[in-house]
From TrEMBL:
<dbReference type="GO" id="GO:0003677">
    <property type="term" value="F:DNA binding"/>
</dbReference>
<dbReference type="InterPro" id="IPR036977">
    <property type="entry name" value="DNA_primase_Znf_CHC2"/>
</dbReference>
<dbReference type="GO" id="GO:0006260">
    <property type="term" value="P:DNA replication"/>
</dbReference>
<protein>
    <submittedName>
        <fullName>DNA primase</fullName>
    </submittedName>
</protein>
<dbReference type="Pfam" id="PF13155">
    <property type="entry name" value="Toprim_2"/>
</dbReference>
<dbReference type="GO" id="GO:0008270">
    <property type="term" value="F:zinc ion binding"/>
</dbReference>
Amino acid sequence: MTIEQAKELDMVDYLAKIGFQPKTINEPHYWYISPLRPDEKTPSFKINRSMNKWKDWGSGDHGNLIDFGIRFHQCSVKDFLQKLDANTPTFRPTQQKEDPNGPQSEITIRRVQPITSLPLIQYVRQRGIPLDTAERYLKEVHYDLKGKNYYAIGFKNDAGGYELRNKYIKASSAPKTSTFIDNKSGELAVFEGFFNFLSHQAINRNKQQPPTNFLILNSLSFFGNNISRMTAHDRVKLYLDNDKSGDKVTKQAMAIDCHKFSDERRLYAPSKDLNDWLLTNHPQQQHQHNQHQQRRSP
């Protein structure tokens, strides 16, 4: 692997592979307890995923994946490239430890309940999702962040964390991972985010469909962690975003098994994703979306 190729590797994905998960996500910023300073108690290591760059606000260090790798593994650039080629990342002997009595800047879930808040109901409808579909998969989540109380719709992952959304925020609570919905089927549909999954449910809600399993990644960085789960199915339909990241992951999947995996993005091209397509092509959803946009305009 060359230096330029290494720089193109997704940093969020790489940190996940070596055992580090973000404490707080506010796209495109992913905040971690610093892997370079394991005694840290509050997240101060940030990855800007759109730029694929990191900065450790505690030390002032920053850079790309190469800069991170030689610090974390305490090795030369050549040695780090060899580690990437071998795909056998190593760990420091010291592990992250959090002091439960120390300052907490990450999200703390206080209460989870059915959706009753009118602003959240309006937000779900403005995203084109019928309320009965939303009520089946979403909850109203009340949480604390930096000493203040907030609430949002929440989509639960397999580790008990939540993807959190409302009109103003896009965040996640720890632990963050993917969500698998097992309907005992040999077919699997894969989505990057839960609104695209819900859009798929909304589009097909009045159709008779054969049972299908669903995998909502909640972040493309979890694609690699789910390869064995995906390949255990007879057929895997990919409903990823129409962007460079979606192109990259779809290409990786097709390289694994072009007969098992299928790229379904043609169904909603040229829209960015399935939710955008839903809002554009279904009059009721578009009307709700336009009302939402008008209310946000000054």
